[in-house]
Amino acid sequence: MIIRKLFKAEVAHRVAMAYTARCQGVHGHSYKFEVFLTGETQDQAQMLMDFKLLKDKFNNFMDSFDHSLLVWEQDPALVEMAPKLNNRFMILPYNPTAEQMSRHIFQEAEAMGLPIKKVICHETETGYAEFDGSDPIRIDLTKVVFSKQILAEYK
Known about the structure:
Oligomer: single chain
Strand order of the largest sheet: 6-5-2-1-3-4-7
CATH superfamily: 6-pyruvoyl tetrahydropterin synthase/QueD
Keywords: Lyase, Metal-binding, Zinc
GO molecular function: 6-carboxytetrahydropterin synthase activity; metal ion binding
EC number: 4.1.2.50
Pfam family, one: PTPS
Radius of gyration: 16 Å
Number of domains: 1
CATH architecture: 2-Layer Sandwich
Shape: globular
CATH class: Alpha Beta
């Protein structure tokens, strides 16, 4: 059985060393994140997981992205500017591409014990990245820094 939950977020970032100059400047996207869970067991209601339960378990983390500025820790100018630009920001151990964001979300779900199958990160209507855990590259989740505002809004 596979179930899917869609999360949405308005996110600002810049992509260092991107092919296009436009992506190298600070800009934003209306992201859609599809989170797929899989499993053979069912709960007492004969569901893999109630969608509301999935939202309750995962929404705090997913909400961290909404109206936030994502900053690569190797972008010192933006690391310094982030708190001045937005009180919602995340300092990340990766360049905030759709590929790495899908990997990050997958690993976070995995760390929470969710039966994660894959994550699709839609950056635009025509482009997305999909991660299913099949490659060995890992993000060190302990290096992700959430701003005080994001942490204050956790429920």
